[in-house]
């Protein structure tokens, strides 16, 4: 009976998130415990990324900043969510992370407080993102993509069916109506990410 009650509670808690038609009802924490409503970004094209400062993919900050600089006038905003769940590669406070990103990559796009993207304490926004766009597969033509695929396959041969975030720098593309239209794994070529952004911005 207790298990049944717990299962029902879990379902009821999941319903509000799954029933969302877009991302605009979610709130996220920024600096100084300030809560930001994602509806403040209505009409913008968003690229939502979970990041880390000590990861092999950390240099992607440079590419993300370049995308932001190139397309912000057309309505693109990159939203950065540091996450320490993958190899403990995002240590430090938000202020330390901001200082690192600004000093090393000139980051100017919005950065939010550290979150969890998988598990019982995951940010509700990420529950929604994963429900809308599942895992897309690593690029096994790259050395790191092949390594990650082998690593996860050893842990679970069916891992690719699980929509969970697999590593740092997974990216979700959101259109101007708040719909999750694409997902890019960290091994995706940044040229493909840019092509996706241009398509949503309706640029030739």
TrEMBL record:
<dbReference type="InterPro" id="IPR029760">
    <property type="entry name" value="GPX_CS"/>
</dbReference>
<feature type="signal peptide">
    <location>
        <begin position="1"/>
        <end position="19"/>
    </location>
</feature>
<keyword id="KW-0560">Oxidoreductase</keyword>
<protein>
    <recommendedName>
        <fullName>Glutathione peroxidase</fullName>
    </recommendedName>
</protein>
<dbReference type="InterPro" id="IPR036249">
    <property type="entry name" value="Thioredoxin-like_sf"/>
</dbReference>
<dbReference type="GO" id="GO:0034599">
    <property type="term" value="P:cellular response to oxidative stress"/>
</dbReference>
<dbReference type="GO" id="GO:0004601">
    <property type="term" value="F:peroxidase activity"/>
</dbReference>
<dbReference type="InterPro" id="IPR000889">
    <property type="entry name" value="Glutathione_peroxidase"/>
</dbReference>
<keyword id="KW-0575">Peroxidase</keyword>
<comment type="similarity">
    <text>Belongs to the glutathione peroxidase family.</text>
</comment>
<dbReference type="Pfam" id="PF00255">
    <property type="entry name" value="GSHPx"/>
</dbReference>
<feature type="active site">
    <location>
        <position position="55"/>
    </location>
</feature>
<dbReference type="InterPro" id="IPR029759">
    <property type="entry name" value="GPX_AS"/>
</dbReference>
<keyword id="KW-0732">Signal</keyword>
